[in-house]
Amino acid sequence: MTQALDEPILLFNDACAVCRVIAHWVMQSAEREMGGATLIVRPIGTDPVALRAMNPGLDIWDAYANIHLLMQDGSMKTNGEAVAETLRNLPNTRWLARAFQFSFLGRRPFQSMLDVAYTILADSRPLLGCESCGIPPPWLRPFHWMAQQMAGKPAAKNHSVIAATTVLPGS
Amino acid sequence: MSATADFVETVTIDTFDSLVLKSSTPVAVEFMSYGCEHCRLLEPVLQSVAESLGSQVAIARVNIAADQELASRFDIRGTPTLVMFLNGVEVGRAVGPVPTVSGVREAIVGTFDGDARS
């Protein structure tokens, strides 16, 4: 059973620096002058069961892989569609969101461009650092490397490992 | 990723000792987080390996975003990391295993076989 929502809920990855900055901006933009918000912004969290309680179709792996916006009617919007719907729900960007509805010969060119831009951003997020994977952002990598060397520990190999390396204790 | 049977049991700080350290069967624990793309790639592979191994080896996951204490205790510096336990003792680990069924199976079974021979 899908929970009834008063406002759409935007889920964001709080282990991703880029996502946190965007979520903070959305949170501020969603504030109404008379109080309350046009949109609820919430971290995805770590509980797959809690997410399924919000919407049975919501998978935690998918939620972390791309943007999800839970609508009041129980539906979900993802990727570029979720970005456009988020902008539509923010008082200051409602005008911009109209562009994504523009249709020409049965296609929505601006929405297609947004979809591509979102996909590129989503795919490049790990390059900007992944706290949960132990990968620092590029500007901190030299310091991270030096700290690892001084501590005598090799850097985490995620994002570059191509083969399993089994390490037995004492080896 | 669609919802299917989960052959990998999630363990937490509260259940780690009873389900992993006190287990009578070998246990491979994946230290992971849901925000890690490599863990996402590994997930269906682990499910497949867990299903094929059946009761020979238990496969479990620890979400380090929720259980940072366990990550510190086992010195996990990146995800995914597979740590193999036999009779409550760590007997090996594989960091960032290549996400193929044969690669992960070899990392798990090879570690336990090697330990049984030694």
From TrEMBL, chain A:
InterPro entries: DCC1-like. GO terms for molecular function: protein-disulfide reductase activity. It holds the Pfam family DCC1-like. This is DUF393 domain-containing protein. It comes from Bryocella elongata. The lineage of its organism: Bacteria, Pseudomonadati, Acidobacteriota, Terriglobia, Terriglobales.
TrEMBL record, chain B:
CDD domains: TRX_family (cd02947). GO terms for cellular component: cytoplasm. It holds the Pfam family Thioredoxin. One of its GO terms (molecular function) is protein-disulfide reductase activity. Residues 1-113 form the Thioredoxin domain. SUPFAM superfamilies: Thioredoxin-like. PANTHER family: GEO12009P1. This is Thioredoxin 1.
